[in-house]
UniProtKB/TrEMBL annotation:
It comes from Micromonospora zingiberis. CDD domains: cpPDZ_Deg_HtrA-like. Residues 1-83 are annotated as: Disordered. One of its GO terms (molecular function) is serine-type endopeptidase activity. The lineage of its organism: Bacteria, Bacillati, Actinomycetota, Actinomycetes, Micromonosporales. The chain crosses the membrane at residues 92-114. This is PDZ domain-containing protein.
Amino acid sequence: MTDGWDWRQPGASGVPAGQPGPGHPPGGSPTTSPYGGQPAASPWWSDALADPWRDPNAPTAVVIPAAPVPGTEPEPVTDPDAPGRPKLHQMLLIPLITALLAGTLGGALGYAFAVRGGAAGTVLGAAPGPVPTLAQRAPESLAGVAERVLPSVVTVRVAGVGGTSEGSGFIASADGHVITNDHVVAGGTGKASVVFNDGSTASATVVGQDEESDIAVIKVTRSGLRPVEFGDSDALAVGDPVLAIGSPLSLANTVTAGIVSALDRTMQAGEPGGPTRYYAAIQTDAAVNHGNSGGPLVDAAGRVIGVNSTIKSLVAEGQEAGNIGLAFAIPINQAKRITQEIIGTGKARRTVIGAQVGGPGSNTNGSGVRLAAVEPSGPADGAGLRAGDVILRLNGRPMTEPTDLIALVRKYAPGSVVTVEYRRGSSRQNTSVTLAADAK
């Protein structure tokens, strides 16, 4: 196939004779130029022979390759370097890597802006300071107080007919005397064991107990004991911070915090068939539960100011009681005095005023306690009190129930002098009474 006429020169040129030569159209004379007598320029195809890419001998037909014979197709060849279709694991790996990179970049940017503030960020809080160790905590802090007192607190276990009774106690002397509650050791065989705050144990014996004050003393034989420091329960004020330490519900070394909720809260307690206990208690809202009995109530300086003894609860009779923020402790001044008497003589003296309260005609509508009888030559008789007198106040504490007079009198040691405000008829009078020990 050519880009002009397929013509041949005569002879060597291969143009057939009688055919027009270059510049001569078929069957005519040479063409003249319209601009003069010169021969006209050759047509556009006349320079085909000068085309260096033209093959004058190329055939004029278009050659179409024949269709391959079936079964003779060449085996397909695959280029190993040619890109192929991605596999499933490759398709999953790419977005996973992308997400990880995006998350890392986002986290780094978030940290930079949150911690360093960025260009206009806000940093909340001051830079954290060093965390104090236990040894670095202030001695007057709650942690400092607990650290000092805990080595002196023990768990008391007493085996009895009905099983093992468990309560708390604290070391009162370096030679091994431990103060606890009478109701913790009551019903036991006289043998007990104590568990110290480090988990070690030691056997103990009951030295003595006072049912009415609910104080008992046991003794362990062990060296290196650390006795508690005693405070002054008469110097307390409502609102003073306190800690209760013991083994509530068998959870040894438990520390709870609260305040002094009330002072001289008169209590009448005791189990059915057992002795009736009277005491003017320290009321606290520190959490106290079964097992805290006999443990110390300490002030902010770590000094023992009471012996945890009873709690108030809303449960029905016979059900297990729990803390509701109403716990009561025996004042340590009273407990310490009874402990010293038990160690010295094996028993404690009971303080009396020498008069009887209650009975017919004792109702005063909450405005005092009427004396039903006065013992001859007793403390009340010596102070000029008579049967029928109404005790209004004792050392400034108002009397509303017979329990109040009994509990407050037993708070003081025999020989203590108390002031009594009373009403006789329509007149009010004051007197001083020197309390005495019961003849028993």
